[in-house]
Amino acid sequence: MEKEDKPEAGDPTAASPFQTEPPTAAPKADHSSDHDALPIDSNLSGNKRAGDTPDDPAPPAKRLRESALRWSLVKCSLTTKLSADKRTMTCLKIPGDTANSVMTTTPAEHFSVRVDCQGTTENEANTDLWVGFCRAGAFQPNGDTKGRFCKLLRPHQAATEGDIEVRLDDGDVLSCHYDRAGGRISFSKNGVDIDRSYVDVDPDDRYAVVVTDCHGVSLTLVEHDD
Description:
The chain has 226 residues and is mainly β. The chain has strands spanning 39-41, 65-66, 71-76, 80-82, 88-91, 100-107, 110-118, 129-134, 148-153, 165-167, 173-179, 184-189, 192-198, 207-212, 217-223. It has a domain at 104-222: SPRY domain (Jelly Rolls). A hairpin with a 2-residue loop joins strand 12 (184-189) and strand 13. This is SPRY domain-containing protein.
């Protein structure tokens, strides 16, 4: 099985651990092509993202409904609190150099999360928030989860070269789309595609997952008519 290279904590030059997926613990996962899946930008004029500038048109109003998906009590960090209906996850105080992760109980090819709270800003070094898909065997509750993720930035947070990311504010909705047949994972903000996606993704079962190192982050699973 291939050796997994992980960046050192606090090393700003280390590659993002969320851009590619390593093999899972399954013995036959050595030949996974997930390492070859690269993000593409279908908007080649300046990496513009939906909602990043005042000139972007306001997205049409969408009616949010209760999602059928639920966060898992089993696949959940001890410092993550789930609501009674298991649709809302909230990060409690996180020990240094660790992160919170939570996964849904069932696989999904589409899901949406509403940003209820982006968390505290008391530690600017701990503001990472990633939402996307992972395979069941790749989930780790301590934050080492690997998968296909979109990084959620605060409205004025600086972008990172090479990452798939989008700026969101409280109340915004991020939708994640997994085209299993087409081998593509894409993302939309408030119903508007952000023009960044992963391609050549293996057609495995994938689960909705959140990984963050920020205290107070709160996200709710919703249905969004993208």
